[in-house]
Amino acid sequence: MARIRLFIDHPLAAGQPVPLDGDQAHYLGGVMRLTPGAVIEVFNGRDGAWSARLVQAGKRSGALEVLAQTAPQRDPPDLWLVFAPIKKARTDFIVEKAAEMGAARILPVQTDHTNAERIRQDRLQAHAVEAAEQCGGTFVPPVADLVPLSRLLDGWDAARQILWADEAMAGPADTLAGLPRGPWAILIGPEGGFSDAERARLSALPFVSRISLGPRLLRADTAAVAALALWQAALGDWR
């Protein structure tokens, strides 16, 4: 059986007692049927991964005792994913895959053609936590609340380049050869694409680079995964 991993928002060090909330205690004791003495792996996004012994798992609370570090902290490259939310299940998919593939921050944006007027930021953050638990990561990317794309661009730091996966450029996939390393963001548009006004603004920004993701039009969730893979292979920690 694969080792059970749990994200714990608590300092971690050898001998450190760690309280469990009701959901965590229920998961370990009620769902996974662990008994006191069982050893799991925990991480907090800052201190690497640690083994921890279950001390108690009741219906409303529980406790762990931290034993020893099992892996150092491994942070992702400085890559953000900016995307327009789509249908619920596909938005969940985008957040999960972004966490698995090493996005450092996830930013949902509202565009002229975005159907969703609001998101459940807490639910999407929970999906990012679950993805990090399952993929063996030690970092959980923060998921921001939904903001208008125009407002995000108004306050954008020009030192962070934007890689725009432009559906209008369908053709041979770009390799990203020659693009500089450093802080980047990947931008994925909504179903139906960006409006003419948004396209004009993005095209005029000196820190925006347009790329093609191949000869076929991709759904937004597929495009997010494809763009993340291209960037990680060329400029990220897959090299």
Automatic annotation (TrEMBL):
Biological process GO annotation list?
methylation
EC class name: transferase
Q: Which reaction does it catalyse?
A: uridine(1498) in 16S rRNA + S-adenosyl-L-methionine = N(3)-methyluridine(1498) in 16S rRNA + S-adenosyl-L-homocysteine + H(+)
Tell me which CDD domains the record gives.
RsmE-like
Stated EC number for the protein is 2.1.1.193
Q: Which Pfam families match?
A: Methyltrans_RNA, PUA_4
What are the Ribosomal RNA small subunit methyltransferase E PUA-like domain coordinates in residue numbering?
Answer: 20-65
Molecular-function GO term, any one: methyltransferase activity
Query: Keywords on this record?
Result: Cytoplasm, Methyltransferase, rRNA processing, S-adenosyl-L-methionine, Transferase
The entry's localization annotation reads: Cytoplasm
> In what residue span(s) does the Ribosomal RNA small subunit methyltransferase E methyltransferase domain sit?
76-232
> Which InterPro entries has this protein been placed in?
Alpha/beta_knot_MTases, PUA-like_sf, RsmE, RsmE_MTase_dom, RsmE_PUA-like, tRNA_m1G_MTases_N
- NCBIfam families per the UniProt record, alphabetical: PRK11713.3-5, RsmE family RNA methyltransferase
Summarize the protein's role. Answer: Specifically methylates the N3 position of the uracil ring of uridine 1498 (m3U1498) in 16S rRNA. Acts on the fully assembled 30S ribosomal subunit.
Record-stated family: Belongs to the RNA methyltransferase RsmE family.
Q: What is this protein called?
A: Ribosomal RNA small subunit methyltransferase E
- Protein species of origin: Paracoccus angustae
